[in-house]
Amino acid sequence: METSSRELQAAEYLEKHQIKEVVSYLTSALLFFRPALKTLGLCTEDEDLQDDGHKITLDKFKEEVNKRMKEI
Description:
Layout: H1 2-16, H2 19-39, H3 58-71
């Protein structure tokens, strides 16, 4: 009975926090976003996309896109 209760709690937690959707989104990002950035010329082949720990706002993203578009 304890196991089924824990499994039920785990399933409820996953559903409440949309964990499956997040994992699906991250998988899509891994597979599709980087090639799309390369296609647009916003990311070079050797560029290392690492998270610097800072939140990226829409304004920061737009500024970076505009900067790179001017370089192109």
